[in-house]
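Researcher: I'd like a structural prediction for the single chain below. Treat it as a standalone chain; there are no partners to consider.
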Amino acid sequence: MTTTIEADARRMYTLLADGGLALARTNTGYGLVAMKSDAVRRIYALKGRSAQKPCVTVGTMDILDDVAMGIAPETRFWVSRAAARWPMAVIARTNPRSTLLASFEPFVASQCTKVDTIATFFGVGDLIAGAATLAYGNGQLIVGSSANLAGTGNNYTLDSVPDSIRRAVDLEFDYGIAPFTADEKLASTILDLTRGTFQREGVAFAEVEESWLEFRECGRMAPQRRAA
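Model: Treating it as a single chain, here is the predicted structure.
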């Protein structure tokens, strides 16, 4: 990270650890990030998002190793390589012994884990990843959701984020346009590792799917295409 990004990452982490809500760019558009219950509640209220829909947890491979279980070594290796190339999220079984998940406040845990699974988002960009690394060093996690009104698609620039959201956050970071965009305002691709199928087709879906199916075939596993 550059010095500027490092400084912004520290500002973000300090704010989130104190219960604040930040608006920053991921590789697939601007997102709302938080750590504490009140801030996560604000995400749902600002978006008009159903409480039945979970937030994602900002991920690194170290974080995935702690919060998830049941991922075969060869699958983990594929995830590490794929996540370095394309923005994506993976769903995996939660690790009941995770020290990081134990740091969640009860409400945050209820919104970020569903039926003993967790969605970990890779491709958040250097800024949010830097803040997540600082949180990880203190035994904590950062969670979030896209900065858009529910059902309206991702916003790839800060100016396209609704004013109602921008006015309500505690801190915003303008890092320009997202590196991955689509005319359909798509978010990240989501791969459910517990089933081996894709839960959502997002940006770079074709590339991620091709890589995943090639991995499954080379691993002599029956390849499974996305769920119907």
